[in-house]
Specification:
about 180 residues, alpha/beta, 7-stranded mixed beta sheet, two-stranded antiparallel sheet, 11 strands, about 35% helix
Length: about 180
């Protein structure tokens, strides 16, 4: 079973973080949320407190198949400023493993140099941080082992793209159909 981790920093975008977790768990993907704070409790951009599954400092990510970054502000800048996460993302990328980011969070990949020569999307206005990428403005953009999403409205399509990689196109369609997403 695929092992996926999603990183929650103070100020993460609620829908992008929890919607993706919901779709992947419904689809049978082992996804864990990881707190980037000093406790498991992380507050979203809209003031909702969420208890993460794990603490960043306590995790060994060697067996991770994919690492995900939800957007939101200041969540995305908090992710960008976390040195341990930056090192982890670069290591994961250098091993050819999968990465995903949505909304403002693709800027983290851009500023790490991960998007050079690749197509990517993000929330409008953040494309200036996608260093070396071809900004497509697509709702969801997949380029090799990297998936990016444009913003909150992209959440279900972004999650389905990730799910399809691990469980197949039909499984992703079935999950979305069951959620009444057409």
């Amino acid at each position: 079973m695929a092992k996926v981790y999603e990183f929650l920093a103070e100020g993460f975008e609620d829908v992008e973080a929890l919607g993706v977790v919901d779709v992947l768990r419904r689809g049978g993907v082992d996804i864990k949320t990881v707190s980037m704070t000093e406790s498991k409790s992380v507050t979203s951009a809209h003031g909702i407190k969420v208890e993460a599954d794990l603490m960043f400092a306590d995790c060994d990510f060697d067996s991770a198949d994919m690492l995900l970054l939800p957007g939101g502000m200041p969540g995305s800048t908090n992710l960008r400023d976390h040195q341990g996460l930056g090192k982890l993302l670069l290591s994961h990328y250098e091993k050819g493993k999968r990465l995903g980011a949505i909304c403002a969070a693709p800027m983290v990949f851009g500023q790490l140099g991960i998007l050079k020569g690749r197509k990517a999307t993000c929330y409008p206005g953040f494309e200036k941080f996608l260093d070396g990428a071809e900004y497509t403005a697509a709702l969801v953009q997949e380029d090799g082992n990297i998936i990016t999403g444009k913003g909150p409205a992209a959440t279900f399509e972004y999650a389905a793209t990730i799910l399809a990689y691990y469980r197949g196109e039909q499984a992703a369609k079935d999950i979305l159909k069951g959620m009444m997403f057409s």
